[in-house]
Amino acid sequence: MKRSWCAATVFAALLAFFPAAAGAELRLALDAGIGYMGGDASFEIGKVVNDATGQELLPFPISRLEYPLDLVMATVRGELSAGDRWSFHLEARKDLDDGSEPAKDSDWFYYQGSQVVPPLVYSETEVEVDAWVVDSGVRYAIYQGYHRGWDELYGRKPAMRWSYGLGLGYQYRKLDYDENNLDQWYPLIPSLPHDRVPGAVAVYEVRHDIPYAEIFVNLDYKDRLTLEVSLGGSAFAHVEDKGHWLLRGLVFSMDSDWDGEAVMGSVRAKYRFTDHWFTALTLDMEQVNTSSESTSFSPATGHYSIGAETSSGSWFVGLTAGYRFGGGD
Fold first, then answer.
1. What is this structure's pTM?
2. Structural domain boundaries of the chain?
3. Distance, CA of 312 to CA of 286 (rounded, Å)
4. For a Cys-Cys bond, which of 29, 42, 236, 265 suits 324, CB 3.0-4.6 Å?
């Protein structure tokens, strides 16, 4: 039901855009370049476990997986503007390397309800990453204005124009991690040696579906320098995690059921060298949190479910160059 409602909302925004575009002057801007995405994603379990023997209350967290976001990415973006108020954008980003940070796994021991630090078991693995981020959205400028100042006195076109409005969008993110070369040790018992296992260790997959609403402000100076600032959020973020631990035969999955929360912000500065050629610098930030239940199976424990929380914080900075088709503003 929530999936259908979210899809219908974004679809309605697209239906509103295209009739408006039919009778308006159209401008298409395409740009491409390179950027860097940093941050991390975590998966924690605990709280309540249900298995064949019944239910047991647990501390939280008893275990945490941490996956790095440390990627150089290629980015391509297209934006179609209809008149001065409507715009539609579509952007895709793809990783160009695997990053350099390891994945981390921590398991804690609790004594009389208190977490004992450091972890009882800690491990790191090398990772190979396949990452995609796709974002699309529709914006409508509610108000447009300009600063008159000395330009009005001398009869010139206002140098500074500005607008603000609302938007609806959808973001899809896919992160696939292949983990290799385990290095595991026991910080709570430092006398124990490291356990090192070469080769494939685990496979971990993350999917984000985030329908969102946003507010934005655009500033334009002399049709050359443009600054776009937006702040968005969602109460219907969908996160799906799947993992397969090859060494233990453990398989788990978690689905947030469209109950996650997301906050995102963006700043984009664009400079036009001519009426058509431009360059853009983009900074994006995003935080996604979910709370749900993970279902698992391993030969040692059988089937069971356990409380789970995920958290993903990321930022992206990118530099692109592009060309705008259509007349000047």
1. 0.89
2. 2-325
3. 8
4. 29
Q: Which class for 49: exposed (0-12), middle (13-18), buried (19 or more C-beta within 10 A)? A: buried
Amino acid 323 reads Y
- Give the DSSP letter of residue 17: H
- DSSP 8-state assignment for residue 259: -
Asked whether the CA dihedral 19, 22, 24, 28 is positive or negative, the reply is positive
From first CA to last CA, the distance across the chain in angstroms is 42
Q: What is the DSSP letter of 249?
A: T
- Read off the tokens for 131: 């990452």
Q: How many residues are recorded in the chain?
A: 329
Per-residue pLDDT of 125-143, as tens digits, reads 999 999 999 999 999 999 9
Q: How far apart are CA 317 and CA 145, in angstroms?
A: 29
Per-residue pLDDT, 329: 46
Take residue 319 and report the two structure tokens written for it.
Answer: 């530099």
Cα(60)–Cα(216) distance, integer angstroms: 38
Give the C-alpha separation, 279 to 324, whole Å. Answer: 11
Residue type, 304: Y
| Cβ atoms 306, 312 nearer than 8 A | no
CB 141 within 8 A of CB 128: no
Paired sense of beta strands 250-255 and 277-298, if any: antiparallel
pLDDT for residue 313: 96
* Interacting residues of 182 by C-beta distance below 8 A, sequence separation 6+: 123, 124, 125, 195, 196, 197, 201, 247
CB-CB contact of 171 with 212 (8 Å):
yes
Q: Report whether 62 contacts 110 (CB < 8 A).
A: yes
Of these ranges, 57-66, 110-119, 283-292, the one predicted with the greatest mean pLDDT is 283-292
Q: What is the pLDDT of residues 248-291, one digit of tens each?
A: 899 999 999 899 999 999 999 999 999 899 999 999 999 999 99
Distance (Å, whole) CA 217 – CA 214: 10
Which tokens in the block code for residue 212? 């969102």
Per the CATH hierarchy, to which homologous superfamily does domain 2-325 belong? OMPT-like (2.40.128.90)
